[in-house]
From TrEMBL, chain A:
Disordered: annotated span: 1-21
Taxonomic lineage of the native organism: Bacteria, Bacillati, Actinomycetota, Actinomycetes, Propionibacteriales
Transmembrane segments: 27-47
Designated name of the protein: Secreted protein
Residue ranges, compositional bias (Pro residues): 1-17
Keyword Transmembrane helix in record: yes
Organism of this sequence: Nocardioides plantarum
Keyword annotations of the record: Membrane, Transmembrane, Transmembrane helix
Highest rank taxon of the organism: Bacteria
From TrEMBL, chain B:
Pfam families: MFS_1
Record keyword Magnesium present: no
Keywords (A to Z) from UniProt: Membrane, Transmembrane, Transmembrane helix
Top-level taxon of origin: Bacteria
Transmembrane segments: 38-59, 66-86, 126-144, 150-169, 190-211, 420-447
Keyword Cytoplasm on entry: no
Principal location listed in the UniProt entry: membrane
Organism phylogeny: Bacteria, Bacillati, Actinomycetota, Actinomycetes, Propionibacteriales
Protein name: MFS transporter
InterPro entries for this protein: MFS, MFS_trans_sf
Organism: Nocardioides plantarum
Membrane topology (UniProt): Multi-pass membrane protein
Cellular compartment(s): Membrane
Amino acid sequence: MTGVPLGPPPSGPPPTVRPAGGRPAGVMRVLGLPVLALVLVAGVLGVQLDKGGGEFEPLRPADACVERGVTSQAEGIEGLTERLVLLGVDGAACRLGVSREALTLELAQPGERSDAQVDALREGLEDAVRRMKRDGTLPPASDLADEALEDADLNRFLKAAIRALPDKVVDGALKTDDVLIRAIDDLDLRELLGNLDDQDDLNRQVEKAVTDAVKDSLLDRLRNLI
Amino acid sequence: MAPLLAVTVALVLADSAVVTLALPDIVLHLDASVTEVAWVLISFNLVLGLAAVPTAMSFARAQPRVLTALGIALFAGASAWCAAAGSIEVLITARCLQALGGAWAVVGCLELLVAERGERRGVATWVTAGVVGTAAGPFAGGLLTEAFSWQAIFVVQVPFAVLAVPAALRARAVPPAEPDRHRPALLPNITLALMSAALTAALFLLVLLLVEGWRHSPGQAALTVSVVPVAALAARPLVRLLRTPPDVEIAVGCFLVAGGLAGLALPPSADLAWTIAPQALVGLGLGLTVDQLTSQAMHLRLPRVRHAAWTIGARHLGVVVGLVVLTPVFTADLMDAQEPAEVAITSLVLDAPLPPQDKIAIAKALGDALVGERGRVPDLGPAFDSLDLAPAQQPAADRLEVQLDEQLERAATHAFRDSFLIGGGLALLALLVVVLTSVAGAATGAVSGAASTRRRVAS
C-alpha cells in the first residue's frame, strides 16, 4: 500500500506518490511491468481465441435448402410420418426463405396461416415423398398395411382378407409414393395448421392422414381385385 | 479501535457491490425486473457518490467523532431496514439512506484513522480498507446468500456497526479542519471514475453471467469471483519487486483490466476455469490502479477529508456510469439472445434421437419452462424432471438436456459479450487519460526545464 507523506501543498505538475529516490527510472523499472502485462494479456487472449473463444455462440440453423438426411427412432407409419414432416418443413422453409427452426416456431404460434405457408408446406411434403422415393427410403406399401388396418373401423373379415393378400400383391397394387401424395393432397392443411397446439401436432395429424390413405387405397384395390 | 473503523470503511465500500450476487434472489423474492434490481446498486452508488463531498464539507463545522458515529448508526439502521424490505421500492429507499449514512461513516473514519494512527498510516489503512471492501464485496455477498439468504448480507452489517459506533465516539479528538487550500485533483479522479465503471463491468456482469447465464449457485460464483481480490492483493508485491513508477503502474493497471474484460467477453466454454485468468488480470489491474489513483488524488491536498470525498465521489459515480451504460446494453442483448436460443433448442429437439411422442412431451415441457421464466435464462432441469420417459429413452433425453443447457449458456455468454467489451473500452479510455496526463506532465516539465536553463545562461 502506498502511503501519503506529509509535506507542503502541491504546485506545478501532478505529484508522484512514490518518489524514485532521486534516481532516474531505469529501463527495467519502466518497461518491466508493461512487458509483463503485455505478455499476460496476449497469453490469456491468445489461448482463449485458440480454443474457440470467439465462436462460443448458439447453434446457427442450417440452410433449409441444403438437403440433409433425417432419421426417426419410430418405426412404421409413425417413423415414416416423422421423416416426411421433417423433410417437408425443410422444403417449406426453403420455399419461404426462412430456416426450418424459424418456420417450426412460427407454426407453433396460434393464429391464421398465410396462403404462402400452406402452399409451401404442401409442396414441401410432396417434395419429401419424391425425395424419399428417389433415395429408396420409402417403405413398401405392404410394410404399412398391417398397421393401417389395425385401428381401422372395418369388418374383421375384410381385414382378414386384406391381410391374407401376399406382400407382392399389395406392393404391386399400391405404390407408397402415390398413396402418400394422395394423403397430402387430401389434407386440409389450413385447418390442420390452424388447430395446432404445438408444432408436433403436425406429426400426429399427418400420421393419421397417411394411415387413412393407406387403408382407403387398400380397400379400393381390394374392391377392384374382387 | 482502528481495526473497527477500517472494517466500517470496508463494509460501506463493499456495499457498493455486495448485493451483486444476491440480485437474482432479490429479483425472485421481490418480484422485480432486472432493470429495477439494478437500481439496488445504482441508488447506493449514486447517493454515496453525490453525498461524499457535501458530507466532507459538513465536517468543517462539527466534531468528526459525532458525525462519524451518527453516520455508522444510520448505515446500520438502514441496513436492517434493507433486510426487512418487502418490496423493491422499499429496498431502494433503504439503500439510499444506507449510502447517506455510509458517506458520513467512510469520510469520518478517515479523519478518525488519521487521528488514531498518524497521517501516513491512517490514510494508508483507509485506502486499503476501501480497496479490500470493494474487491471482496461480491464474494462476501455471494457466500452469505448461498449460506443463508440475501437478507443476511444486510443483517451481518448491523453488529459490526453497533461495535463501531462507540469506537468512533471514543476516538481521539480530531484537530480543527484545515482551510480549503487546494483544488480537487481532476485527472486522477476522472481516471478513477472510468476505472470504477470498468471494474463494475467486471464484477457486476461476471456474477450475473455466472448465476443467471451459467446457472451456478451464488456460493460457487462467490468462490469464483474471489480471484479478483486475491489477484489485487498480489499486485503490491509485484510492484515492489519491479519498482515501477506510479504512472506506469496505473497505465499498466488500466491495460490489464481492459485485457481481463476482453478475456471475459471471449470464453471458449461455460467452464468456470475459463474465467480465472481474465479475472486475475482484472484483479491485478484493480490492485495497481485504485489505491494508487486514490493516493494521487489526495496527495498533499488539504483539507484531506474533502479530497478523500472527491475520490469517493469519483469512484461511486463511476460505478453509476458503468451500471447506467451497461444495464440497458446487456438486458437488451439478453432479450435479443432469446431468439437464437429458441432456434438452437428447436433444432436440437427436432433432431433428437427420440421417438416422436417423447419429442412432443419435451417440446411442451420446454415451452412451459420458457413461459414460466418470464424472460430470464430458463432452467430446463425441472422440465426434463417432469417427463415420464421409458428407461430406454432416458440416456438420449439426458444428452438432449445437456445439449440444450449448453445452447442456453452459449446464448447468455454471447449476450454479455458487448457489455464486457464496453467495460474494456472504459478501461482503455482510462488508460488514454493516464497517457495524455503523463505526456502533458512531461511537456510541462520540459518547458519549465528549458526556461530555467535559459535563466541560468542569461545570468
